[in-house]
Amino acid sequence: MSQFDIFNDDERPQVTAEIIPTGAGRTVVVRPVGEIDMLSETELLQGLSNALEWEHATGIIVDLSGVTFFSSSGIGALASAHASARERGMSLRAVVPVGSSTLRALTLTGVTDVITTPSSLAEAVAAASSQLAHGAGTNDPVTAEDDDLAETS
Fold first, then answer.
1. Can you tell me whether residue 148 is helix, strand or coil?
2. Strand, helix or coil at 101?
3. Is 111 helix (H, G, I), strand (E, B) or coil?
4. Cβ atoms of residues 89 and 59 within 8 Å
5. Which of 124, 73, 66 is nearest to 94 (CA)?
6. Fewer CB within a 10 Å sphere, N or C end of the chain?
7. CA distance 118 to 133
8. Element (H, E) at 79
9. pLDDT of 125-145, one tens digit each?
């Protein structure tokens, strides 16, 4: 497993990415920490973009467990990354702790109906490994909500 900082200074939220071998492929874990709002969404977008462009990635896990505030800007970034991942045949999961304000925001906006949201990183990595072991593509079904979600981002 390797890790690198995408952004990390006192003016911006910390966003790191880890590359985790998962079965036959590799999953990139993007881990933002702190507040994600309209002033800081650029860092999240850059982290997600870097993960999507990594040629060896088979999936992305966005670990939101260190996020203390997740605004509509963050939701839009996550929805956009989900759509881009699907276009590339990749899965995208968002780790969101049970009872968190982030989970509440994602649930109220319908994102949890479209994006798989395991409550722990271990659960997300296990699901990614299992998916690859069974030769599956993305684990998220194509639904009408996908189009609705993409239109709101």
1. helix
2. helix
3. helix
4. no
5. 124
6. N
7. 19
8. helix 72-87
9. 888 877 665 554 443 433 333
